[in-house]
Design brief:
The protein is an alpha/beta fold. The chain contains 13 helices and eight strands. A six-stranded parallel sheet has the order 4-3-8-7-5-6. Helix 3 packs across helix 4, helix 3 crosses helix 13 and helix 12 packs antiparallel against helix 13. The protein is globular, with a radius of gyration of 18 Å. It starts with a helix and ends with a helix. The mean pLDDT is 90.
Length: 262
Amino acid sequence: MREEDVKQEKILGDNERICILDTTIDVLTASETVSLVEKYVKTKTPLHLMGVNADKINEVGQNELMKKIVNSCGVINADGASVVLASKYLKKPLPERVAGIDLMQDLVVLSEQKNYSIYLLGAKQEVVEKTRDVLLERHPKLNVKGIHNGYFKEENWSEIALELKEVNPDFVFVGITSPIKEYLIEFLQNEGLNCVFMGVGGSFDVISGNIPRAPKWMQKMNLEWLFRVMQEPKRLFKRYFLGNSKFITSVFKEKHRRGPKA
């Protein structure tokens, strides 16, 4: 067993995990996730901090490489109300949705408090610059080791790895679309980087003010996905409406396979 795997097992300890549609998910609240992730930072243990929603679980079901990457992650959160509802329907309930953008901001707060360093990777240049500026305005003592936009090709991944090795941040927030985001993080970890990598999707766009976030009442009613579709219907309609339909059908089938008492 690799040294990194041994360290990860010690950190995870007795942490409970469930499986939905071949996808492993940690039974964690947001605050429990922050505490667990900090253990990785303190011990300089590499971590791919993963958030899964219905779309990601659908991808796991049809992409063996994605399945391997997701299920090998040290911490896997339910970043989707549909995943939490599915867990309850399958009688292995998760405590809550751990929204990626909220978790990122919780980890930024932790970083300012404990002097952990961060790096922002992804989005357009003006967006990632604005994200850095907004975070520093909110958290003046935050240690931002660097930023890089997300517009580069696979042949440039080694250059990104060298830059990260040079600045050696504790957290790398990756605002790039899937599945490239997951493949890139996997590559960077294989290059020997002992950072906490977290894919944050479109969080840079929201933090920078480039795209609005759903009102609080929609977040509380688990309708944030609908707000996102309203903002970008052409790009997101298929993912959310067709993707969610596929996910729901698969959950019903899994329930049926497990029998009426499950």
